Amino acid sequence: MKRISDLEKKYVLEVLDTGFRSSKSSIMMQRLENEFAKKINKKYAISFINGTETMHAVLEAIGIGQGDEVIVPPLTMASTTFAVIQTGATPVFADVKEESFLIDPKNIEKNITSRTKAVIPVSLYGMMPEMDKVMDIANKYNLFVLEDDAECIGASYKGISVGGYGDASSFSFQSSKHLSSGEGGMVVTDDIELAGKIRRISSLGYAGVNAGKGKITKNDIQDPEYNRHVSMGWNYRMPELCAAVALAQVERMDELIDIRIQSGYKYLETLKNCSWLKPQNSVDATNSYWTFSVIIDRDDIGYREFRNKYLEFGGDNIYAAWKLTYLEPMFQNMMLLGREKQFTRNKDYYTDGLCPVAEKLQPRILQFKTNYWEEEYFLKQIEALKATIKFFE
């Protein structure tokens, strides 16, 4: 099996054959959105240029802005926090759980203030948080829940698939993701009014778009009296070439996700007798293994020591966890393009000790690749892992 098949090439050629004529534009985008909504079992899907502006658009659509606070985890790609900052709102960081590496519902509740308007739980490395508890808290305090599922298509929590809990959910087609078009993103929701707002925000505030329609008509724009822009909006639409590739990937979704899951199972089998490499774990969640992630539960071995020895034995690069967002230089120096002036929290808030569990986990996390398309090569990685474990025992 190949990551890019003849189907992706076929759809791309269909777009190229149109010569990008306006009368043929958005055909792939519409097909992609319809197919994705069906696969995720949601009523509406809106495609985007990437999986960051998806979240920005949702937050704008629900009116998040200056003076508001949005709760996010610190142990994830900074894009989740960037989406909050783009609106002028303040990111507030909730700690994670030690076993799952995922946002801790109890810590969400601890951080709620009168300014809190939303929470963005992140499904990290292929695993969903305790979404039932997150939703209970959100309902108690009337908070909007936006699932960040960029790394987690194909997983479930307590039998409910990813995207099935929140008011809206964001997905990514970035190059490293389960399904990829190089770049791209998708928002899904069952709320027709919200979907319409998200669409307009992603499409320059055009009057002629709605929840299920992403393109204004030629007849509309040829009228000199036509009022195009009913609201402020951005140009976040997915290009047709990306939509063509993403459509093929969505149609092949099961096989593309399964290859990572099978890799994850093989890693688990390899670690069954190793007590000090502890995989990400949640009793009620399945894992679609965007990466196979573990922590080194020993004080005498660090990330670099393990990684260097793994490379020496023929292993691929091992990815480290992102530095916690609030410990990045941009937060430590408050270099946030002036938006820090709108924050409800000052620089002293974003400091060591804010999320102690995440701070403990971050330097110990190893992320092993799972997207191996040649079994023989993947088995070499397993042998390298076995040799590395044996060396340190």
Defining key terms:
393 residues; alpha/beta; seven-stranded mixed β-sheet; four-stranded antiparallel β-sheet; 14 helices; globular
Describe this structure as you would to a colleague:
It is a single chain. The protein is of the alpha/beta class and 393 residues long. Helix content is 36%, strand content 13%. It has 14 helices and 13 strands. The protein has helices at 6-17, 27-40, 53-61, 79-86, 105-110, 131-141, 192-202, 218-221, 240-251, 253-270, 303-312, 329-332, 356-361, 375-392; strands at 44-48, 69-72, 90-93, 116-119, 144-148, 156-157, 160-161, 168-172, 185-189, 277-279, 292-296, 319-320, 365-368. β6 (156-157) and β7 form a beta hairpin. The two termini are 36 Å apart.
Mean pLDDT: 96
Share in helix: 25-40%
* Main β sheet profile: 7 strands, mixed
Q: Could you tell me how far the N terminus lies from the C terminus, measured between alpha carbons in angstroms?
A: 36 Å
Q: With helices defined by DSSP (H or I, 4 residues minimum), what is the helix count?
A: 14
Give me the Rg, rounded. Answer: 22 Å
Number of strands: 13
